[in-house]
Write a sequence for this structure.
């Protein structure tokens, strides 16, 4: 990715709602300090009546994005930035999907994405991986993001 494309994407990631519906497993930001975030929801802190959050195990990017944007804004430029996203409803994409992950890494002025999946039932069939990778490619293409090849 060209430097201008990296800057453009980082702006979208931190300022726009593109990834807001993805769950966040972990975030690591290395500036002049290392910031690590575990996206696991602490159930005891959820107010009564918020059934949607009670069913979730991980917070969303939309909930974390403003805080992380502030960290980056007041710190020096990140030397490294890693996010492990997970797809909110994996069964909506494939009937054998237990979890679907999209890993984002910013390092050395470059961005990369990798995908991973977990199956509900063991299968040698690779359709889950193929389906997820194709979905991610289309998602990134829709937002004009190219993965390095």
């Amino acid at each position: 990715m060209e430097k201008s494309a990296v800057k453009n994407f980082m702006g979208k990631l931190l300022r726009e709602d593109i990834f807001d519906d993805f769950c966040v497993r972990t975030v690591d930001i290395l500036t002049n300090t290392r910031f690590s975030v575990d996206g696991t929801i602490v159930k005891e802190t959820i107010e009564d009546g918020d059934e949607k959050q009670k069913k979730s195990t991980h917070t969303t990017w939309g909930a974390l994005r403003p805080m992380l944007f502030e960290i980056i804004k007041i710190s020096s430029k990140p030397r490294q930035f890693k996010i492990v996203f997970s797809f909110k409803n994996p069964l909506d994409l494939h009937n054998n999907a237990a979890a679907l992950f999209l890993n984002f890494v910013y390092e050395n002025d470059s961005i990369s994405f990798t995908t991973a999946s977990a199956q509900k039932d063991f299968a040698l069939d690779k359709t889950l991986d193929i389906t997820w990778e194709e979905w991610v490619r289309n998602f990134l293409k829709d937002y004009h993001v190219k993965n390095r090849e």
Observations:
- The two ends are 9 Å apart (CA to CA).
- The chain has one domain: 3-142.
- Residues 3-142 form one domain.
